[in-house]
Amino acid sequence: MVWKPHVTVAAIIEHEQRFLLVEETTPYGVQFNQPAGHLEEHEDLIEAVQREVLEETAWHFTPEFLVSVQLWRRNQSSPTFVRFCFGGQCYNYQPQQALDEGIIATHWLTRDEIATKSLRSPLVLTSVDDYFKDQRYPLSLLKSFLDYA
User: Fold this and answer.
1) CATH number at 6-140
2) In terms of C-beta distances under 8 Å and separation of at least 24 residues, what long-range contacts does 139-143 make, across chains too?
3) Regarding beta strands 36-38 and 29-33, do their DSSP bridges make them parallel or antiparallel, or are they unpaired?
4) Tens digits of per-residue pLDDT, 92-139?
5) pLDDT at site 1
6) Whole-prediction pTM
7) Cα separation of 86 and 20, whole Å?
8) What are the pLDDT digits (tens) for 28-47?
9) What pLDDT score does 2 carry?
10) Where are the beta strands (DSSP E) in the chain?
C-alpha cells in the first residue's frame, strides 16, 4: 500500500480582531474550524482555498499571503494532512448561497473565544497565533505546473 498524505487548504480571515470560523459536524461532534478543505484534482492551491471559503462561508476570498504549511496527524492510526494556511480578505458575501453539507453556521470570533471552542484540530488556534506573530510569506512561493509538459 502506498502512503499518501491528504493535501488541504485553510483560510485565516480577520476583521477587527475577529476571525471567520465555521461550526461544523465532524466524526468527533460539533467543532470549529477555519474555512478549509481538500485540494481537488484539477485546481491549484489558490483556487482550492478560494473555492473552500466560498462553499463553507458564502464569502469570496482573496488570499494575500501564506501563514504556514503544517504537517499534522491526530494519532498513528489517523490520516496525515499537509495543510496550506492562507491569510487574506473576504468580499462579496452571498447570503442566499447554501453552505457545504455539515456546516452549521459561520462565526466571527476573537482569539480568546476560539480558545474556548471545541476545535477540529490544534492547527486552528496555532494558525491564529502564527497570524498574530506576523508570519506572512509571499504567494510567489507556490508554483503550479498543472498540465505542464
Assistant:
1) 3.90.79.10
2) 139/46, 139/63, 139/64, 139/65, 139/66, 139/86, 141/66, 142/44, 142/45, 142/46, 142/66, 142/84
3) unpaired
4) 999 999 999 999 999 999 999 999 999 999 999 999 999 999 999 999
5) 75
6) 0.94
7) 13
8) 999 999 999 999 999 999 99
9) 87
10) 6-15, 18-26, 29-33, 36-38, 60-73, 80-91, 103-109
